[in-house]
Amino acid sequence: RGLGDVYKRQAKSTMKLFGLIGLLILWNCSCVDRHRSHALCEQSLIDSLEVRAQDSLFSNLPYSRSLLRNAMRQAQDSMSYYRLMGLYGKTFFISSDFYSILYYNRPVKEYDKRVAACPRWNDVLSDVYNIEGNVWMQLNQPDSAVAYYEKSYAYRLKGDKAHLLSDICMNLADAHLHLSLIHISEPTRPISI
Predict the structure, then answer these.
(1) Is 118 strand, coil or helix?
(2) What Cα–Cα distance (Å) separates residue 119 from each residue in 6, 88, 104, 162?
(3) The model's pTM
């Protein structure tokens, strides 16, 4: 055997090695894609649970809360978890358990201090402050409600759901109307000279 045969064997070995490396790279990429698609499937499931929970909010409150708790357990990232927690807190408005709303909104607002602002998160915070404004209206504290509605409005301006600004404006108008009625009904003191 000559020198040419040795080069041919080395070339074949080199080609086999490159083929094996290529297979390893393809296998690794398929694992990454499988993991990525698994995460997308998880997010789709969470989004589906959230939509079903919102749809059944008024018709079957315990079922809605159960769906949201299940979705929170499956949340892969903090933003999804706290977004769901804000919605979970909102469910207590239907049952008039106002202090539970404040309880569940507190961690959502605390998380805001650690997260980078983005339009989707601003919409979450707008919902949180709007529902808290509703709580203060129910507790007959329109001055506090105005402050929360104004925060809700500011966050909504930086969010993606600008079509909901009119709802916040109506809440603000209602709170201001209640404030003016309170001030009209307060006895005035005579002016002393």
Answers:
(1) coil
(2) 65, 20, 21, 10
(3) 0.70
